[in-house]
Specification:
The chain is of the alpha/beta class. The protein is 41% helix and 27% strand. It has a five-stranded parallel sheet with strand order 5-2-1-6-7, sandwiched between helices. It starts with a strand and ends in a 6-residue tail after the last helix.
Amino acid sequence: MKNNKVLVPVDETNFSLCVLPYLTYLLEPAKTELYLLHVAPVPHAVTVGEQVLVYADQETASVEAESRTALQPYVRSLEEIGYHVAPFVSFGDPAKEIERFVTEKEIDLVAMTTHGRTGLARAMLGSVAQHVLNHVDIPVLLYKANARDADESTLAW
């Protein structure tokens, strides 16, 4: 029997990781592969006048290294309790990148934390969670976290 492939989209805040304790409660480590995906904005070259100070590929490598470093404590904690964890970094629109990743890696479940914005806030800011719900054909587990969850998110699972 194959392992379940679960995608957890993460940003640079603890808020996005609030879903992890629920996943570890619901899913057996021996039967689950966790993919942590951070989507960063597409880097551009930094120039002053006509002189290029930082090339886009240098910025890409730097952001990717920083993201992987930031994810390492979570990867280690999840691996210590038996999960196979793979961190990934991509660049672009988060909703589209999550959609692409689901197809490319043949993900079985997307588990993500949502702010639960409604009305004007969602219309103005958009909703990655809503896009994912509407554009992937696999189950999506949404956890509506609050500020306290993120503050307490030392994630002691």
